[in-house]
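Re: export button greyed out
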Amino acid sequence: MADRRIEVVGGKKLEGELKIQGAKNSILPLLSGTVLCRGESVLHNCPNLTDADAACRILNCLGCKCRRENGSIIVNSKELPNTDVPPELMQEMRSSIVFLGAIIGRSRYCKLSFPGGCELGPRPINLHLLALRQMGIKIKDEGGYLDCSAPNGIHGARISLSIPSVGATENIVLAAVTAKGVTEINNAAREPEIVDLADFLNKCGAKIAGAGSGTIIIEGVEKLGGAEHAVIPDRIVAATYLCCAAITRGELMLRNIDCSHLSAVIPVLEQMGCSVYPYKDRIYINAKKTLHPPHKIRTSAHPGFPTDAQPMFMALASTLKGTTVFVETIFSNRYRHVPELARLGARISTDDRVAVVEGVNKLTGAAIKATDLRGGAALVTAALYADGLSKITGIEHIDRGYDDIVGNLSAIGATVKSIEN
Ligand code: EPU
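Workaround output, generated via the alternate export path:
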């Protein structure tokens, strides 16, 4: 495949209006959820992302018929002839593990390869497996494969998660909707993407209550049909463009968002000195006043400050006079953007989960490399501020979660282009 890079000449204030794409982290569990539906499901507001394409390839491999039509993905899961996902498809994205709960829920058997670690750290799935075993699913974990079966059916269980894992909560919900009896998840993840999954499954005939709170109750039903559903807006993409506006001291209106999903991010921007006006489905930011560092950002599970927004806020803090301390509590290896930001002139030191940023007046364009999705978005954010030309490689990471980031940034005044050679 040709090498691609994004080239940015920094220093332009971003101004204008953008429509925010649907959420990557919703679309993946929703597509997995369609496996449970014995009919046609239509998902609207689907962004064009390589991760969504990978999920569609898994659906087609299972024998569901999956196609894109403009901004929608249509899945016909009337038949599910296959229950195994080959390793090459599983390895395309780590979050493909969310297919486990859905396939076993529908077919009572499935074989997947173990997803393994990723650029953010080891990414264990022990909580997923422990919970599914509590529901009567037998899981053999051998030779890199998860061989799962529930010959006597899946039954409801009372499950207490030691960490409110997003993926484990999704897998339990997916396995529980057609299980026998009631499942109760305590210390469930409360992310908006969990609510979106529950809303979709309920439209399909599931009985899920409490999504968005720490306790989710699922009453198993016999089967699900298909439904039509619009994917929620991507709160992390919205946070990224808010950081891009702030770092260029510009002003921006974002449309198609849900401000209630940004409740941890907006106060930090305000504390920095940005004027932020949240409306229900739009947000306006003006960053033309002098901005100050936020001093401390500690990531935590929703409704805390999202780990996925940490790298872009670090890029922003790098340009604000004073010190900001970041504490990353979710992932063990989420500072891989730091050495790349340093190439642009950022002053950041790290010690395990803590990063200390000393703001500088000036960043200077350089050749930098994205090593993960949000870290890549942080490099683009920083490059918008840096003097001169930055050449960003590792674009395949950014393509996993951002639909046309180059087109969007150009439309609001950035000097940015995508180069293939
Ligand atoms: N964890 C365990 N055992 C498990 C599951 C998780 O120890 O069985 C640990 C993880 O290692 C991590 C923490 O629990 O330290 C949280 O992991 P979680 O399961 O909540 O994360 P995830 O489901 O793997 C999703 C998003 C991530 C996002 C996290 C946290 C998707 C596809 N991915 O991952 O998104 O950072 O929740 O909010 O929904 C991204 O979009 O860039 C991204 C990485």
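The longest strand covers residues 4-9. The button fix ships in the next patch.
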